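tokens incoming
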């Protein structure tokens, strides 16, 4: 997780994953979407010859693009090839293997691999064939069969095989906790035809399982089971700086460990003429520069050391770009509005620690947070307070529960806060001095009810006398200006808080081991939530190192509603279950919600072209943009 104002778009399924900070906001192939699907196959009892194979799968009825479609509508199939796109991220790396829990993987490396299916960016939840040319599954969702494209090749010319797919599933589940959780319901993968692989699930009715199986990155078995140049056996579960073999549109180019990495376009890429790839992968080279500090990274951007900067700071957006390059038009400032769920970015408690286990204490922390002052003073009024885990979408809970939600909530009434049924969740409002006083008084009352009292200006446990002390763990010093005033506000309640900022590697290690009191966390959601909710909030993930259940939630009601989401039979059931989950999460006060803007802030050197109309769910950079020679020449001439 990242301490920038927009937060980290952390998602292991992101095809451009591997970095933190601003790079995580780059439009990527999966665009932060969790994908589900609708029954489109015939019953599993039918023979292979009778099965109805499909080129694409979608949750929302039929897919947009019919069989034999030429290309996605949002691309320019005649886009020129060439040029370099220079990106940036905050942090460092020591590995070129993104599929292990060990080490810190470089960004961009996932672009060398293809997946079975690939999403479209103008549909909220659709996938089309990539390595797999078609898929079929029975109406009870007990399995899925993918048929591989006969033309699929690794960069060494060897065909992609069913054995590669089976090997990938088995190794990924062993090597990284994300894949172990994401694919835990796949109990068997077997070869069922020359180019067919069938995945069997341990449950029926999970509508998402067939399609998330299609997101599987496929690794070359023959390469990973061989030895490197030094005679050492390769291991998917270990970090490595050896350039791996891939099948995708790019291969690893120049690598400077910890500093930069590039990937270069594969001219004879097997899938370059597929409809899902036309008009994409246009740059000859993508280069990712690493910086330890965002202040330095900003100055590097203004010095033309990289081209594309998603701006995480409202202050920077308002004040830092009054420079000649912007005034002359060489640098363009854009706001891109997307039809996506806004992530829940928040101060996240580690409720594994006893001092945070009472929800009244957690609510008191929210009462002490003055968002209105921060928005006016620090953010130039750019932000909206987040009041949902699914903000800016129909999935967000509003008002009181609907009849459909009540039908889900009534069976667990004794396991959820009573306010779920009687009140609409609202964050406290500060800003005015009288509001601050009222909120702090309410916070003191809640702390006292929870067994804490102020003695000599220090909040202590009434029974043990132990003071309430805590640490905000940050990864970026830019967030300190936000947390330090919050620390002062907590001090008025007698809470002794301090701020500690550490380097990205130490930060990630502490997150993975749940070694923190409070962090700034961000959970990106999709328009079709599903299995990933188990990793976010599920009890089984609470004690799994590296999981995204940072809070440590173990709640029967939450587990129950997650299952209702996963096993929803249609869109209406999915929406009702998600809203119910939203209410239960909010009223348990697991986090202190922060803020969001319903658009992406992008600063870029004006060297690129793009399609006239971008897709609804992603900026699409760098996938569908291209190098514009005339613009680049104009920028050079104006220097």
């Amino acid at each position: 997780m990242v301490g920038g104002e927009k937060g980290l778009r952390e998602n292991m399924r992101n095809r451009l994953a591997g970095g933190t900070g601003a790079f995580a906001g780059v439009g990527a192939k999966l665009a932060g979407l969790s994908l589900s699907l609708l029954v489109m196959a015939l019953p599993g009892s039918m023979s292979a010859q009778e099965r109805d194979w499909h080129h694409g799968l979608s949750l929302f009825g039929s897919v947009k693009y019919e069989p034999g479609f030429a290309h996605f509508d949002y691309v320019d199939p005649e886009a020129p090839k060439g040029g370099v796109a220079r990106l940036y991220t905050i942090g460092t790396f020591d590995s070129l293997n993104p599929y292990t829990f060990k080490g810190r993987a470089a960004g961009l490396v996932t672009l060398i691999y293809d997946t079975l299916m690939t999403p479209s960016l103008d549909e909220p939840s659709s996938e089309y064939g990539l390595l797999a040319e078609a898929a079929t599954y029975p109406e009870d969702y007990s399995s899925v069969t993918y048929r591989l494209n006969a033309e699929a090749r690794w960069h060494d010319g060897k065909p992609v095989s069913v054995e590669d797919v089976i090997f990938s599933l088995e190794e990924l589940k062993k090597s990284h906790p994300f894949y172990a959780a994401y694919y835990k319901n796949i109990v068997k993968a077997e070869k069922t035809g020359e180019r067919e692989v069938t995945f069997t699930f341990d449950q029926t009715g999970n509508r998402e399982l067939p399609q998330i199986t299609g997101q599987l990155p496929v690794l070359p078995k023959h390469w990973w089971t061989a030895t490197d140049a030094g005679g050492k056996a390769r291991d998917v579960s270990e970090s490595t700086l050896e350039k791996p073999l891939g099948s995708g549109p790019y291969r690893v180019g120049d690598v400077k460990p910890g500093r930069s990495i590039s990937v270069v376009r594969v001219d004879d890429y097997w899938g370059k003429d597929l409809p899902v790839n036309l008009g994409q992968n246009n740059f000859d080279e993508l280069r990712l520069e690493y910086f330890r500090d965002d202040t330095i990274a900003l100055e590097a951007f203004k010095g033309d050391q990289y081209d594309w900067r998603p701006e995480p700071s409202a202050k920077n957006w308002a004040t830092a770009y009054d420079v000649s390059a912007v005034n002359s038009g060489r640098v363009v400032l854009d706001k891109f509005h997307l039809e996506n769920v806004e992530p829940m970015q928040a101060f996240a408690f580690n409720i594994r620690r006893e001092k945070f286990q009472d929800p009244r204490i957690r609510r008191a922390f929210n009462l002490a947070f003055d968002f209105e002052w921060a928005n006016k003073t620090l953010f130039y009024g750019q932000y909206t307070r987040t009041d949902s885990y699914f903000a800016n979408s129909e999935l967000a809970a509003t008002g009181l529960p609907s009849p459909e939600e009540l039908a889900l909530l009534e069976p667990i009434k004794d396991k959820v806060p009573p306010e779920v049924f009687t009140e609409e969740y609202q964050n406290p409002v500060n800003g005015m001095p009288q509001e601050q006083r009222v909120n702090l008084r309410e916070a003191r009352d809640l702390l006292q009810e929870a067994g804490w009292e102020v003695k000599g200006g220090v909040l202590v446990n009434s029974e043990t006398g132990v003071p309430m002390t805590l640490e905000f763990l940050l990864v970026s010093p830019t967030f300190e200006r936000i947390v330090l005033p919050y620390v002062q506000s907590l001090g008025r309640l007698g809470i002794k808080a301090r701020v500690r900022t550490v380097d990205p590697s130490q930060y990630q290690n502490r997150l993975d081991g749940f070694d923190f009191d409070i962090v700034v966390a961000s959970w990106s959601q999709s328009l079709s939530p599903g299995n990933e909710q188990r990793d976010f909030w599920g009890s089984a993930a609470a004690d799994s190192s590296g999981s995204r259940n940072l809070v440590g939630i173990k709640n029967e009601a939450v587990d129950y509603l997650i299952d209702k989401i996963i096993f929803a039979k249609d869109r209406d059931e999915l929406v009702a279950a998600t809203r119910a989950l939203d209410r239960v999460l909010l009223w348990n006060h697991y986090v202190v919600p922060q803020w969001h803007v319903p658009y992406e802030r992008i600063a870029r050197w004006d060297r690129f072209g793009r399609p006239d109309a971008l897709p609804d769910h992603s900026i699409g950079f760098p996938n569908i943009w291209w190098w514009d020679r005339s613009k680049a020449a104009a920028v050079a001439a104006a220097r």
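note: The CA atoms of residues 171 and 236 lie 7 Å apart.
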